[in-house]
Amino acid sequence: MIHASLDDTTGETLGFAMEQLLVAGALDVSFTPLYMKKNRPGVKLEVICHRSDERKLLEIIFRETTTLGVRISESRRAVMTRELRQVETPFGPVRVKRAHWQGVVKESPEYEDCRKAALRAGVSLQAVYQSALAQTDTEGEMTE
Amino acid sequence: MIHASLDDTTGETLGFAMEQLLVAGALDVSFTPLYMKKNRPGVKLEVICHRSDERKLLEIIFRETTTLGVRISESRRAVMTRELRQVETPFGPVRVKRAHWQGVVKESPEYEDCRKAALRAGVSLQAVYQSALAQTDTEGEMTE
Amino acid sequence: MIHASLDDTTGETLGFAMEQLLVAGALDVSFTPLYMKKNRPGVKLEVICHRSDERKLLEIIFRETTTLGVRISESRRAVMTRELRQVETPFGPVRVKRAHWQGVVKESPEYEDCRKAALRAGVSLQAVYQSALAQTDTEGEMTE
Amino acid sequence: MIHASLDDTTGETLGFAMEQLLVAGALDVSFTPLYMKKNRPGVKLEVICHRSDERKLLEIIFRETTTLGVRISESRRAVMTRELRQVETPFGPVRVKRAHWQGVVKESPEYEDCRKAALRAGVSLQAVYQSALAQTDTEGEMTE
Amino acid sequence: MIHASLDDTTGETLGFAMEQLLVAGALDVSFTPLYMKKNRPGVKLEVICHRSDERKLLEIIFRETTTLGVRISESRRAVMTRELRQVETPFGPVRVKRAHWQGVVKESPEYEDCRKAALRAGVSLQAVYQSALAQTDTEGEMTE
Amino acid sequence: MIHASLDDTTGETLGFAMEQLLVAGALDVSFTPLYMKKNRPGVKLEVICHRSDERKLLEIIFRETTTLGVRISESRRAVMTRELRQVETPFGPVRVKRAHWQGVVKESPEYEDCRKAALRAGVSLQAVYQSALAQTDTEGEMTE
Ligand code: NI
Ligand code: NI
Ligand code: NI
Ligand code: NI
Ligand code: NI
Ligand code: NI
Ligand code: NI
Ligand code: NI
Ligand code: NI
Ligand code: NI
Ligand code: NI
Ligand code: NI
């Protein structure tokens, strides 16, 4: 993970930097509000990436933000295995991600599919989520 | 109270603006972290002031920050009456603020006095606070 | 709504104050992180209450926190009408709140019921929620 | 301004709601992190809008989020007058917003123009901003 | 320490997860507000635990939250040695934690004892704290 | 980096601690808002320092704050090389920091110089920044 603490980059510039980092292959980008010296509201930028993308992402961070130095750390990970499958809802097909870890099983409908179905059908995002999850229930898939 | 939501002012500039606003008579200035559109970390600036200082403070806000418009609202207040008196501590004299409101009484040592005493005596800020509060106890002033 | 900005009350004290305010009838209590002068992380306390409870809640705020003054403001409200009914889930009965506003209808299972059912059955909170919402679907209640 | 405090709406849903609110004519939408009862991280949703859009936006808020009630408040405003004009930069034309308020004059390049120019030219957003602002300097427009 | 960044778990669910994690032996659980992609307010969950509890706590995180992967990191610690003793206050007995580290000594009254005494005596939490700390002063324990 | 999570230190005390840590050689000090158990708003204190200053800074943290234990971690760094030079602006001389990293070059005017010039000349901080940056442009230094 790449970290930088910023007190002189604007929100507009940070929004642009996030967009560039995601396009360039960052797995995740987030901002955390930070109180810095001299009463400055700052932001901690965190970027999660494959080691092989590190140099390319550092270039974006150094070019777009005002930071003069970043910290880079590694950590162990614990991840659930995942598989995607599709369910039919009254609002159209939605892919659902099914995740496993040592007996824990859970399912979550794909955001982009739900978003499109909700806009197309004129219903709430929540209505599509519930429909998609109800399908997985009926088909008995949460009981392993 | 004057409010402005900012997504393109840097932390450095906001720290400078706070300093200017306080010098110009603002009673209180604060920042709140804000999530704004296009993934921009922003800041809500809030300034509490006497009505008569409003114009002067607006000028600082418009000059120093990027905001193009602010909102101004009024509200009722409920305040405790206050009086200052001085107590002697092992670290030197410290003023203590005593506040009343319908049977509630509380005392708080003045920050700047405690800060100076702590630096002078090489003890923690907390040690000075406790000493000052202990004086008020001994003198029986929390029981009204 | 009652507001106070605090820079010298501890988190422990604020947690205690929230507990006291809720016991005394506050409808809602929240904290917002705030950047205050002299590099102080502060907290904005907000309390929503019936006008008739205001005096009692002010007393708690003045007694438990360090604030010397609060602001009080009123605002218009727009609310959904609500009714509670009960559904049966594989994890036991759960009350579901059904809310209406000009054609919008939505349902949300009661947190405390779901919490108890989840603990009793040894399943996740989410599993109980989904079960309760699935019941409302089957019974056709989201379509008005 | 419309306010709602939310402790059971997901970040995904809030991102979707912001998108819908902006499409439907909200002038500004923001989120503030909130600490709510029972150790719940919540979010305060704030929407600024023309009075005439209020009903339409309330419908989105009630449909997409879990809130059962919102508060609506009005406030005075102080705004700078604005005018847009275009400057030429080495990276292409950029519109610059010029704002006035009682002797204060400031200029800010339009974000979307700078973003497009930066992407097209392969330079940083900051480089385009500086170029655009330098044009306004050379032409003497900050001195009124 | 176990970290997870969440953008689709509700505050209600996070409050429940914190409760479960503490019951299962987590030494500390905290949430940090996070700005995530697509304008999503998110939360970073951090859990501090004994290595031997890691598997059990991961199961709770994977079961109760929506996360599909967490990061785990270790760090050196520097800790003060502690001892508990009891003091008598006008509001009843209160245990005080006394901590040492290379010449630094400090004392802090136990929150749960103070809370109970304050509720029983009908005084503020702060009044009990001050009383307990005043006892330690009188007995000369802050001077080593 | 030294980390501590605090739920019973006041904002006033934290502002004082930041001041002491910076005087004692900390390279950077920041606070992050944290949601801790029992509904407590807390603060994560982070201190970046040379390894040789660690002991001295730990003493300040243990003396001034309520923490009983901190975590210490190391990380790789990626830094830009820097050089300072001076430019002349209509508001007086300002030093500008020029930073390099593998083809990326950027310049940022020194905050303290800009602050002093702005106060002296009665113009906005932004006006001085822009002037200083315009000088670096004219002299062609951003093109390498
Ligand atoms: Ni990959
Ligand atoms: Ni998702
Ligand atoms: Ni006055
Ligand atoms: Ni104070
Ligand atoms: Ni009522
Ligand atoms: Ni709820
Ligand atoms: Ni309009
Ligand atoms: Ni802008
Ligand atoms: Ni242990
Ligand atoms: Ni404690
Ligand atoms: Ni050095
Ligand atoms: Ni700087």
TrEMBL record, chains A, B, C, D, E, F:
Gene3D superfamilies: Transcriptional regulatory protein pf0864 domain like (3.30.70.1380). GO terms for molecular function: lyase activity. Keywords: Lyase, Nickel. The keyword Lyase applies. Pfam families: Ni_insertion. InterPro entries: Ni_insertion (IPR002822). This is LarC family nickel insertion protein.
